[in-house]
Hints:
SH3 type barrels, Porin, single chain
Amino acid sequence: MRRRTLSVVAVVLCLMVSRAEADQVELKNGDRLSGTVVSLAGGKLTVKTSFGDLVVPWGEVTAVRLDKPMLVTVTGAEPRLVTLEGIALADVVALAIEQPPVVVTGSASAGWLNANGNTDVSSFHLDGQVVARRHMDRFTTGGAVNHAQDGGVDTANNATASFNYDRFFNDRLFANGNLILTTDSFRGLDLRTALGGGLGYEVWKTPAGTLSIEGGLGYVWEDLDDAPSSSYTAAREAVRLKVFVAGSQVQLFHDHDGYFGLTGDDNLFFRMQNGIRFTLVGHLVSTIQMDLDYDKSPAPGRKTTDRSTSLTFGYKF
């Protein structure tokens, strides 16, 4: 009997502790939510509960009691690590969980590539990406390498590297700098350098996915193997889209960068990556990706468009 009483007391204490440690949200209709406040963005409050993530219009919230401080942004001020005690909810425009000083994510993959265009072979494909976020700064670097031989002769030899820097002014608006380096011996392209800068905005930002757009000015240099080099000033635009399905088990993605020459009808460079990534087990993933690279003024005798489709297996972190 004594053991049973102690067990009941222990269970009650655990429930009390769990309840005390949970965030509490009260709504205009009298409902109360208990869980963990994840974020407030775009006028939507996301609360993680035992039944899954719930998204509530901020205007329907009458009270929020946070168990731990969050990054709270009020109108006209920088985010501060505080609770909401003493702060009018009408003044709050964003909530976020405090992140470590530097958050690093990324992936690395390898696989077989079937390509057609200026390169019409099967080849080995390597790619990777690393994203580092430090408070209001985000650094992204990525690259891909394709190389193949047929009878001891190179049949594919190309590589691309990209570097991005984003400086956020608030939760969505950021300044952007971009650099893309491309080399491809089968396109007669010794090195293409595309440099851009401007502004970006995260149009859609929820647990289900993100959508950001970028725009500004750029400059493109092309050093060709058997033709004079060229360069031009361009207007630059870019789109980054990620959509998560079945939690984060499946990810659909689309990225593209376009450099549209401000002078000359043939000054245009565009690249795009579309794909779907599956989580296999743990951190192991498989990716099906389709890439396109379009250059309106390629080297003499080369095609304007290169397309490739790859199936890779890799690791995400």
